[in-house]
Amino acid sequence: AAVLVIAGAVVGVNWPGPAGWGAQRSVQAIAEAPDAESVTVASADGGEVTIVWSEELGRSAVRASDLPEVGSASTYELWYIDEGGARPAGTFDPDAGEAFVVLEGDFTPGVVVGMTVEPAGGSEAPTTDPIVVVET
């Protein structure tokens, strides 16, 4: 039994908390789709962001690392941007600079994925310049 506890503790160090497991698995499922594509970029605030998408699944996701904390009055917000403008695609707050997020809404090829820092709770339209812009 002691071995199992030790093994469990080691695994716990390498994975995000229980809430992060589902998000990480969902991002991984999109990344493993047969038609998955991805782009990794540096964010304007010093982080690294990978956008992964699957036309077949109609889904996209973000894996972010080294993102700075934005404080309790702000949050990161994701956007789908096309000729009709920017549509909110979810908000998130990184845990120790890391985040796994599946974007809300359906992914369509050719859409631009953007990321901004917005007031806590998010916005209906971007209120700041994007720190990440990726064409899909």
UniProtKB/TrEMBL annotation:
What's a Gene Ontology MF term here?
A: sigma factor antagonist activity
Q: Which GO BP terms sit in this record?
A: regulation of translation
Q: Which InterPro entries match?
A: Anti-sigma-K/W_factor (IPR051474), RskA_C (IPR018764)
Superkingdom of source: Bacteria
Q: Which residues cross the membrane?
A: none
State any GO CC term.
plasma membrane
Where does the record place the Anti-sigma K factor RskA C-terminal domain? 2-131
* UniProt xrefs under Pfam families: RskA_C (PF10099)
| PANTHER family per the UniProt record, alphabetical | ANTI-SIGMA-K FACTOR RSKA (PTHR37461)
- Could you tell me what this protein is called? Anti-sigma factor
